[in-house]
Amino acid sequence: MTRFDKHVFVCTNQRGSGHPRGCCNDRGSSAIRFAFVDGLKKRGLKGVVRANKTGCLDACELGPAVVIYPQGIWYLHVTTDDVEEIIETSVIGDGVVNRLAAGAAEWDELQKIRAAERTDKK
Amino acid sequence: MTRFDKHVFVCTNQRGSGHPRGCCNDRGSSAIRFAFVDGLKKRGLKGVVRANKTGCLDACELGPAVVIYPQGIWYLHVTTDDVEEIIETSVIGDGVVNRLAAGAAEWDELQKIRAAERTDKK
Fold first, then answer.
1. Is the whole-model pTM more than 0.90?
2. Element spanning B6, H or E
3. Bond from prior residue into B64 cis (ω within 30 degrees of 0)
4. Alpha-carbon distance B60 to B76, whole Å?
């Protein structure tokens, strides 16, 4: 039996400086998580929806990354300015903020970036 | 578009010693996450299923807590010995390990524990 109507996960992984992938935390994801927590709290959704930090969601180069379950919507390149729209659309509603949502093109892009990283290493 | 077939989240929150709720990390959840990572890797599921650590999932007193999406199955009092069964049942399969899964009774129990904690504080 599930516990939360929606569950927001924000990658707050922190890598050492100079890592080729970078990391979501260096791109501001801790502030993004706090924006979710605040936005949920002000809507009286504490205990109904939860926003958690996570370890690396493996979308580093396209981060900050956020995933919302149970829908499994992935948002990439998120900023604090996007959080209210995401809450209204995908937490209160069941829609998708298309300009931020990952689709096949974004996952293909990530594969290409990773392939290039492997080539650079050789 | 979602990225992983299943996504396992393991609470690895660490509180200071003596906190009345305790915390999942003190109850061994970091080892549980590594057991998931290892179990997925040995099945060739890297990139298909991910096991992430999270901040506090707010089930502290009944932890270690694990939640698996998209199903939204919550497992409580998890040990490393349970991980293989959970992977086979809820990650490879779509079933539930009933002896560990949270239902209404567990969430009611948590509410009662929290109510008692509030009384103790007064």
1. yes
2. strand B6-11
3. yes
4. 9
Instruction: Give the ipTM of the model, two decimals please.
Output: 0.95
Contact A69, B5 (CB under 8 A): no
- Tell me the two tokens of residue A5: 């109507």
Find the closest chain B residue to A108 by CA distance: B3
State whether the Cα torsion B69-B75-B80-B84 is positive or negative.
negative
- Our CA-based measurement puts residue A113 at a distance from the nearest CA of chain B, in whole angstroms, of 15
Backbone angle region of B98, left / alpha / beta, with phi > 0 → left and psi within -120 to 50 → alpha? alpha
Q: Could you give the residue ranges of the DSSP H alpha helices within A16-103?
A: 29-42, 83-86
DSSP H or E segment with residue B115: helix B104-121
Per-residue pLDDT reduced to its tens digit, A28-69: 999 999 999 999 999 999 999 999 999 999 999 999 999 999
Best probe of the B interface among A10, A46, A67, A74, by most B CBs < 10 A, is A67
Tell me the pLDDT tens digit for each residue of B57-104: 999 999 999 999 999 999 999 999 999 999 999 999 999 999 999 999
